[in-house]
Amino acid sequence: MPTKPKPLPFSKPLAGISEKTISIHHDKLYAGYVAKKDEIAGKLAALAKGGDVSTANPTYSELRALKDGETFAVNGVYLHEWYFDVLGGDGKPTGPLADALAKEYGSVDAFVAFMSACAMASRGWTVLAWDTHDKALRIYNGDVHNQGGVWGCLPVIVLDVYEHAYFIDQGSDRKAYLAAFWKNLDWKKANAFYKAAVA
User: Fold this and answer.
1) pLDDT value at residue 2
2) Residue-range domains of the chain with CATH
3) How many angstroms separate the CA atoms of 78 and 145, rounded?
4) What is the pTM of this model?
């Protein structure tokens, strides 16, 4: 059964991130990952139900290519959904997540500065996650969808730093985009992700 792209969780315009950018990002790029996820799943299902997998090997085979594409497409869907899910707020830190970040980093401003620096060092994604092994909040970078993620970590705040997220609005000025992201962060939703992850 085909997966439908999740609708945007906010309707109000964002400060510093244009409707054109959001439309291209959500309606074309993210929707494309949803379609590819389904296409790959269909091909894998056919192989699993009696398809020819006799050529499977670690250098190149249809199965290897599909399995590699699967993690790229699936993570492309999930990371974008988490990214859009925390947008649409007023950017004012509140709740247990803000308290935990202030305790860990000295202040929420210090956390924002450090996560923004991590985002400047990333080619694709910066993720604040609850690490279920360490039982702590951690920031991880991923240069592509299927690289950099740490198993056992649950995303809390996902930040897309690929150029498509900001180039229309800020050109190559990633710092201006990061400032806009934090102004639009929905701390209520981030708190919900945090509470669910910790639980």
Assistant:
1) 79
2) 19-85 (1.10.287.990), 95-198 (3.55.40.20)
3) 9
4) 0.96
